Amino acid sequence: MDIESKNSKRIWIIGAGFMGRGIAQICAQHKISAWLIDPHEKALADSRTHIIWSLTKMYDKGRVEEEPVSTLSRIHFERKAPQLYDALDFLVECLPEDFTIKKEVLSTYDGICPPHTIFATNTSALPIGKLASTTTRQDRFIGTHFASPPVIQKLVEIIPSLTTTADTLSRTRDLLIRLEREIVEVKIDTAGFIMNRIYLAAAGEAIRLYARGVATVEDIDRAMRVGYGWSKGPLEAADLAGLDIIRNAMISIWEDTGDERYCPPERLNRLVEAGRLGRKTGAGFYEYHKEGGKS
Length: 295
Description:
Layout (H helix, E strand, L loop, with lengths): L9 E5 L3 H12 L3 E5 L3 H20 L7 H5 L2 E4 L11 E4 L5 H12 L7 E4 L6 H5 L8 E6 L8 E6 L5 H13 L3 E4 L9 H17 L5 H12 L5 H8 L1 H15 L8 H8 L22
Parallel strand pairs: 1-2, 1-4, 2-3, 4-5, 5-6, 7-8
Antiparallel strand pairs: 6-7
């Protein structure tokens, strides 16, 4: 099925960060046209470079049959919204976990996109209804929280708010099925949903245990990998996601629920303030080498 077929989809992805570029790649691999939109030229250039690297690696290993250049042709890198409004099926928001930023951008695009366009947010913790209220399309607004990294992880949490219609839910499910995602539906719109409500509670406790000197970073992670079969320990996973993102997600849940388990530990606050944000800055709970290793 090519992108001109009657079943084709056109998707705008707002934000060319780690998640945005990954979702754009998934769309392209499944013959869907994606417009990756970000006002920062460097973010777009970095995304193009990373997507080419990722597709080439998959092609060389025989995991995909289509040549990288063909897949990449379905991704359009734009600094502002293109003139394709009437043909737009979905808008996927992949902005930082900051309500003020999301509110401003969602409100702007709400005034641009046609009435039928579904807005999907990839927020990892903010309540969907709160974000939906910043637009005039609360019935066509839904949460689609892709597990990280999205190119590798199949799981997507789908979160309707109280105002999301059955048609919006159905159309979103159809898209995710076409993208070959594993879907879990969150029945109640609550901050953090399923994955992060469980993971962040564990991560917060792991950070507190480390800060108290109960065990080393390595042994805390090893305990969860070996004892519970986690692919990554909680502290390594936090470094991979970005400690600033972890902190913001915890704050979102804490403010929404008042549950003290999600109050960011002091050690996490200090690391973020020091700019030690994890793998992306070269240091977090671990130190990272340029070649990708950690110590």
